[in-house]
Design a protein that fits this description.
Helix content: over 70%
Number of helices: 15
CATH topology: Growth Hormone, Chain: A
CATH superfamily: MFS general substrate transporter like domains
CATH class: Mainly Alpha
Radius of gyration: 20 Å
Structural class: mainly alpha
Number of domains: 1
Largest sheet: none
Number of strands: 0
CATH architecture: Up-down Bundle
Order of helices and strands: HHHHHHHHHHHHHHH
Shape: globular
Distance between the termini: 9 Å
């Protein structure tokens, strides 16, 4: 029987971490979806170079995942977050100043480590303060707040980029990161513990966890397609302006946020995580395929469907981790999960970046959607009790 961590106040274990995640999602959404356009149209990079940059971004997640995760168990997420917000502030400022490809790669690596590390640390902090009651609702609300930040930030980013230079949004991100650093000082300090790597390895070698990670890796490749091709598809194929792209991209996170909230509550009521995974993969894959239709309204509706699917899968992953792993080892285990997800994104970026440049930016989105659909029956065929049905 796992020992339940001491319950801190609602301010420190719910409100402040959620608020920081919301602000972090908001300000990073200013830039993240629009970076391929900045790289191509302002800095003049080729599709292959853009693929290298986003492959490097995903690789930073591979580099950061395990050290940051283990550090969260040994040093507390709070201490790590202070350092990472400082790195984000400095690297965002540097991104606004560089032009050469080599220098951009170097700064982008630091930027990526900070972005991925902050996400890992905030999520780990939230998972570590879970008490086993209403896990789904807590995770659902936390992720819904995150999606709200992304939705508003993406729409606002599209509007800002329509009005001001892209470099100005990077400066705004730098200043906001410095402010978030101060907010991180008020986060709770979780219990620290020194563990052997064998304990983490034993957690991951369980059959249900191996199968869980296998389909999650395949699903994650679609994020590589989106990173390298999504914005360029909207601009080149659908002919949207930056302001219209912000609305298109941001709107997806409204049904996504609603889905994580509903699915979180449903998981607390005993709904099967495996059934949610299958439904999420079908909706995500079908929406990704259908959004490639070169008609703005139809593509937009399909993207909303895709968002519902991704929302369901988000809850499957987070509730699954909360149930599969002990909170003392949550940092290291979350780091390993993040490693698997990031590896999928790396593969997707490397494969889909050049594909979009040579055959059109709809092709990577279409191919990744088909792959997501093909995964869904595989998940359903996994024997009940061996994978997504938690037995904490």
């Amino acid at each position: 029987m796992n020992t339940i961590p001491e319950r801190p106040s609602d301010l420190t274990h719910r409100i402040l971490p959620s608020a920081l995640m919301c602000v972090f999602s908001f300000v990073t959404a200013f830039t993240n979806f629009f970076l391929p356009i900045y790289f191509r149209d302002t800095l003049g990079y080729s599709g292959a170079q853009i693929g290298v940059l986003f492959g490097a971004l995903a690789l930073t997640a591979l580099v950061a995942a395990v050290p940051v995760g283990l550090g969260a168990d040994r040093l507390t997420p709070k201490r790590i977050l202070v350092v990472l917000f400082l790195m984000l502030a400095l690297s965002a400022f540097g991104m606004a100043r560089v032009e050469g490809f080599g220098a951009c790669v170097a700064v982008f690596v630091v930027f990526g480590i900070a972005i991925n590390g902050i996400r890992i640390s905030l999520d780990t902090l939230y998972l570590k303060t879970d008490h086993g009651d209403e896990t789904g609702e807590r995770m659902g609300l936390y992720q819904a707040v995150r999606m709200a930040g992304i939705a508003v930030g993406t729409a606002a980013g599209g509007y800002l980029l329509y009005r001001v230079a892209f470099a100005s949004t990077l400066i705004a991100l730098s200043l906001a990161s410095a402010a978030m650093l101060l907010g991180a000082l008020g986060l709770p300090s979780t219990r620290t513990i020194r563990l052997h790597l064998a304990e983490y390895r034993a957690d991951f070698l369980r059959l249900k966890v191996v199968l869980f990670m296998a389909w999650l890796f395949l699903f994650s490749t679609h994020w590589g397609a989106e990173q390298t091709s999504y914005a360029l598809f909207l601009q080149d194929t659908l002919g949207l302006s930056l302001w219209q792209m912000g609305l298109y991209m941001g709107a997806e996170f409204i049904p996504l946020g609603a889905a994580v909230w509903w699915c979180g509550r449903a998981s607390d009521q005993g709904r099967s995580l495996r059934a949610m995974a299958v439904a999420g993969l079908v909706l995500s894959g079908a929406g990704q395929v259908a959004m490639c239709v070169p008609h703005v309204s139809l593509s937009f509706v399909a993207r909303l469907v895709h968002g519902v699917g991704d929302g369901a899968l988000t809850i499957v992953v987070y509730v699954g981790m909360a149930k599969y792993f002990h909170f003392d080892r949550m940092g290291g285990n979350y780091g390993l999960v993040f490693l698997i997800v990031s590896a999928g994104s790396v593969v997707g970026s490397i494969l889909y970046g050049p594909l979009g440049q040579h055959y059109g930016y709809a092709v990577p989105l279409l191919a990744s959607g088909v792959l997501t659909l093909l995964i869904s029956p595989v998940v359903y065929l996994i024997p009940k009790g061996a994978s997504l049905e938690a037995d904490a």
